[in-house]
Amino acid sequence: MQIVIVDSSRVVLQIIASLIEPRGHAVHPFTDSERALEFLAATPAVRVLITSLEVRPLCGLELCWSARLLAESRGPLHVITMSSARNVRSLAEALDSGADDFIEKPPSAEELNARLRAAERLTTMQEELIRLAETDPLTGSYNRRAFFNRARAAVAQDPRPDAVSAILLDIDHFKRINDEHGHDVGDVAIKAVADLISGSGIAGRLGGEEFAVILPGRDLGEAVAHAERLRGDVQALRIPGAKGPIALSCSFGVSTWRDGDSVEALVKRADVALYAAKGGGRNRVVPDQGAGVHAVAG
To answer: Where is the chain membrane-spanning (predicted)?
Structure first.
C-alpha cells in the first residue's frame, strides 16, 4: 500500500518508515501537515494516513477532518492517529474528527503492521463496495448515478466548461434483436457497444440500450465527428447469433455546453437530439437544435 506519515520529527518519521517499508509498503513522509494534505488530494492511490496529533500548521485533528472530507471524492482512506499521550479524551477527539484508529507513539512493529493489515482489508472492501455501487453489472460501465457524478466533477474541474460536449446513443431496433434472437444475444450487443465507447471520455450506461458520453475539452464539431466515428464502428460490429452474424446500428444525439448550463441540461439536449435522430430514420448523428451543424446519416 501507499502510506502517508505525518510527524513534526524527522527521526520519528524514519523510525516508523523502517517498521513498515520492509513489508513492501511505499511510504511518503511529511513534517508539514498542509503539504501532506495536498499530496493526499493529488495522489488517490494512497490508502492510509498515519498522523501524529502534534503536527503543524494543521493540527492532527484538523488534518484528520480534512482528510476524511477529501476521502469522500478521492476514494477509500484509512486514517490512523498517533499520540504519546494516550487517554480517553484524545482517543474520542481523534475518532470524532474522522480517524479510524488510534495508536500510541512510538508504536511497536508488530502492532503497527497488524493495524495496517486491518486497514488494507477494510480499504479493499470499501473499494469493492464502491465499484459495485458505481458499475453497471452487465457492461462494467459507469451506471447512471456514477456517470452523472463523474460528469459533474469533470465539469467543475474544467477551466473551459464551454468546451464540454455530450453524446447520447441508443441501439436501433433493439427490441427486434431481443424478440428475434433472444435476450442473451441482446446482452452481447449491449456489451459490444459499451466496449466501443469505453475509451471515449466519461462513458456510462443510462439504462436499457441507451448510453452517454461526456467529452471534456471538445466543442460541438469535435463531438459530432467523434460520434460519427462511433457510429461507423458500431455499424462494423457483427454479433454472433444462431442464424448467423447480426449487424447493429446506433442513433446519436450531440450537445455542447451553454452559458449557465448544467450536466443535466447538457444531457437533456443531447437526448432531444437523439430522439430526432431516431425519428429521422435512425443510424445517424444529430446535434441539438440551433447548433448550426447538419445531421450526418449513415
So the answer is: none
